[in-house]
Amino acid sequence: MTIHRRVLVLGGARSGKSRIAQQLAEASQATRILIATAQGFDDEMRARIAHHRAERDSSWQTHEAPLDLADAIRAQAGFGRVVVIDCLTLWLSNVMLAGRDVVRERNAVIESLNAIKGPAVLVSNEVGQGIVPATALGRSFRDEQGRLNQRIADACDAVVFVAAGCPLLLKPAPALTLDLG
Fold it and tell me: Which residues of 60-76 are buried (b: 16+ CB within 10 A; e: fewer)?
């Protein structure tokens, strides 16, 4: 069994990625920390947040970081703790809507991940497999989400893709070779 320090869990909406991330954290003996990025601006989002909260038992500590994710990672991660960040997609949306510099914020998150001593599990949506958004903001978000996922995947030891609740290990992957004969 290979142990990974940083794991990215990708998938579509309602794919089961949060459940997989939670299971990874709960399989460890570490103190469980959730860094939540969602903001309950309306009844539907408040219901989603409540649903996720109900899925975790009292062994979890929750810290909210809708914008200042890099600081939250540095503050919460460490030896004997496993940090689950759920989710990068909502965080990116918050950053873009707040008019913050996406590249600077993304780089700060990656730097914080590279600096922590404890394990981290990051949850993110794979949005590039859907329809092309009709608006410039939608297309910009899709593009930035793809860039974020690529950079986070580079910083992680393992990447898991979840579809229909089933995890598929993408990284590390077996080496691909071409038969040139």
Answer: beeeebbbbbbebbeeb
pTM score, whole prediction? 0.91
Cβ neighbours for 33, distance < 8 A, ≥ 6 positions apart: 60, 61, 62, 63, 76, 77, 81, 82, 83, 84
- Dig out the tokens for 74 from the structure: 């540095």
Among 4, 51, 52, 63, the active-site one is: 52
One digit per residue, pLDDT tens: the chain, 181 residues? 456 799 999 999 889 999 999 999 999 889 999 999 988 888 998 888 888 888 888 889 999 999 999 999 999 999 999 999 999 999 999 999 999 999 999 999 999 999 998 999 999 999 988 788 899 999 999 999 999 999 999 999 999 999 999 999 999 977 777 777 6
Residue 51 a catalytic site member:
no
- Ordered by start, the domain boundaries in the chain are 6-171
Can you name the CATH fold of 6-171?
Rossmann fold (3.40.50)
Q: Measuring CA to CA, which residue among 33, 62, 61, 13 is closest to residue 121? A: 33
